[in-house]
Amino acid sequence: MNAARRKKYSAFALAREALRHHRGWPPAWRDATPKRAYDVVIIGGGGHGLATAYYLAREHGVTNVAVLEKSWIGGGNTGRNTTVVRSNYFFPESTAFYDFSVKLYEGLSRELNYNIMFSQRGMMMLAHDRHGVEMLRRSANAMLLNGADAEFLDGAEVKRRIPGLNPSPRFPVLAGLNQPRGGTARHDAVAWGYARAADALGVDIIQNCEVTGFIVEGGQVRGVETSRGEIRTNKVGLAVAGHSSVLADMAGFRLPLTSYALQAFVSEPLKPCLDTVILSPATGVYLSQSDKGGLVVGTALDHYPSYAQRGNIPIMEHAAAGVVELFPQFSRVRFLRQWAGIVDVMHDSTPVVDKSPVGGLYLNCGWGTGGFKAIPGGGFCFAHTIARDEAHPLTAPFSLKRFETGALIDEAAASGIAH
Amino acid sequence: MLKISCPWCGPRPEIEFRCGGESHLQRPGPHDQVSDAEWAQYLFYRTNPRGVNFERWLHQHGCRQWFNVARDTATHEIRAVYRMTDPKPDIKPTRHKGGGR
Q1: B48–A255 C-beta distance less than 8 A
Q2: Please, are residues A244 and A367 in contact by the beta-carbon 8 Å criterion?
Q3: Structural domain spans, chain B
Q4: What is the pLDDT of residues B48-79, one digit of tens each?
Q5: What integer pLDDT is reported at residue A44 of this predicted model?
Q6: What is the ipTM of this complex?
Q7: In this structure, is residue A14 part of a structural domain?
Q8: I need a labelling partner for A70 at 20 to 30 A (CA). Which of A58, A145, A164, A282 fits?
Q9: Which pTM was predicted?
Q10: Cβ contact, residue pair A249, B101, below 8 Å
């Protein structure tokens, strides 16, 4: 480990490097080659995997850790989402966890010494009919009771805050539910920031290393087989989002989830015209404007199981129709890029952070369409689960056992929002 | 966009259909001898393969009939369409690069 690699990022360092034509920046993390054995192996170099490695080293002193990524870090769902951070859930278990994650996001740039560009521009949910208004009132009350921030706004106030909204829509905006602490963050920076900070604590980040099998002896995991050789370990953390079932199948068990493609779109850059995140369940679309100026648009799942990281035209049309209904002036804006990520959806839309049926193999999966906002909290609690071999209190309700006991946390129905 | 051949109506675009999830699920029984773990497997656990998936589809905006489709979840290639009462066809799973099954 050379000292230069640990250089602190600061305005001073930026000015110094600017004078040197930016030739002195060291790589943000080492390109590690796999050792023969580790204390903990994390499969999946996305946000959750990297955050888990960071918190293992930082909170639990476990630094002999490898993060295995089959392609490049942050190239899966971490780089394919719409970067929304929020905690507008219904059940106390969900809000406690997701609000903890938002709080970690609030201090993350400073903690990682990496600007993740977290912008708390608010997250506004719209209601276009009487039932929608009732749902928003119920949501607002639940959020406030559970300790999250929320404000219920009437239609006039929503229009005042979002001046670009369609003045004569088919379904007028009757009310809005704003979460002021919600917002967006730079998704790549979250992965890179955690990677850099974990690497500085001694974690090996190994890219282009695909796991092809597990070494299990007597019901206990003893290592993984990879495209870069065998790696021995007694603890493996699985943080592979849409491919959880594929990895579980290698270890010989099934999971209560289904993988779907979720599309997102970004438009050509525009001048600043939208300073919040808007979610309109009735039109099935949500959008925000990135710092670069592009409109970042998300919509519903492609409604059949898929591992193909591409979306389909019908959903794209649906998203475009929703955007134009909300903002007719965007009708001539062109989509610049379209992409899809594979999300692992649990039956109750609540994740699993738990031990698996195989000893020493831990699960972090089922984040569905909302994994990005859960990265800091998910990594923090998953690190606890791996290091202590017991659930963190915040994720104890997110167990596999709930599918047997019936203690489901049905956010799909309760908060009525796409995730 | 998928083009699905409904056994009754012929080839139609995907927007006319709805996917009903994994097919050939057998309800365990007799019910008083089924453990909680078995019920959980039946109700919630799915094979979710990266490869050929045997699934139910409904021609929702057409003849409103249910039928089965064997579809590759990595390529979206439809390998077979067959009726609800037909046995599971013998289709060799394709191995995809980077896939598990």
Answers
A1: yes
A2: no
A3: 3-82
A4: 999 999 999 999 999 999 999 999 999 999 99
A5: 97
A6: 0.93
A7: no
A8: A58
A9: 0.95
A10: yes
